[in-house]
Amino acid sequence: MDIQSLEVFLGAARIGSLSGAARHLKLTPMAATRRLASLEDELGVRLFNRTSRSLSLTPEGEAFQPFAAEIMDTHEAARQTLQPTAGGATGLLRVTAPVTLGRKRIMPIIHELLDEQPGLRIDLELSDAIVDIVASGIDLAIRIAPMKDSGLIARKLADNPKHIYASPSYLAARGIPKTIDDLAKHECLTFSNFTHWQFLVDGKERSVRVNSRFSSSGVDGFLAACVSGLGLAQLSAWDVKDELQNGSLVPVHIDGASPRDLAIWAVFPSRRQILPKLRVFLDKFQSSLL
Q1: Which CATH superfamily is domain 84-158+263-290 in?
Q2: Residue 189 near residue 214, CB atoms below 8 Å
Q3: CA-CA distance, 200 to 207, in Å (whole number)?
Q4: Given this model, what pLDDT does residue 129 score?
């Protein structure tokens, strides 16, 4: 099975465009079309539904996609074994991460990482949605959430302690909450469609209903709202490092209760060999969290 044909297939599936995959792979549109046609002839199935305006995977293409990704990873691992580059990383690494984590903790390491690894390319998708990494052809997802049994492989990278924060102007106007019951009198900023904050009280989880006139689909939204004085927010410690230093936010302590901590996880599509491109990224990222 031709590796370049698989690259065209996976690129087109990920980008949603055969011409886009051709540009990414530095091929002519005709060459990409021929490689895809050759792969479909070899497999005896159509992998895409194609019109003049859209490209979508057929059921056979969806079924084949994870196997194609596995073949590509195995091919890359074999090349790394037979032609090592002094421990260096090569190829394209596709990563997805939450917006604020990506902006504040991943982007600062990218320049140094690419300088250290001249053969490495990185495609970083920042999204607060849970991306289907198998269907999207993603190599690695960084997530901050309780991990559920999903068939994916997860590795804990670091604890992610959370606290409540507010701006000095908000606390001066509305007062400082001391207990969980006091939160009912306050604006508690959170994600869209979330109505509760999670706490640990006497070692047990407790869900507390909160209210706010503002919510956001991402952490960046209610972090900015918190800084502007719109309310209280539960945020990770790394979220507010700069804001604590410049005094735009201060911590708020609730007697007898603490926000439920989460963890930062690396999530992989399957039990593939950890390729050098994954290893160097995770080592650099994990070191930045310490």
Answers
A1: Periplasmic binding protein-like II (3.40.190.10)
A2: yes
A3: 9
A4: 85
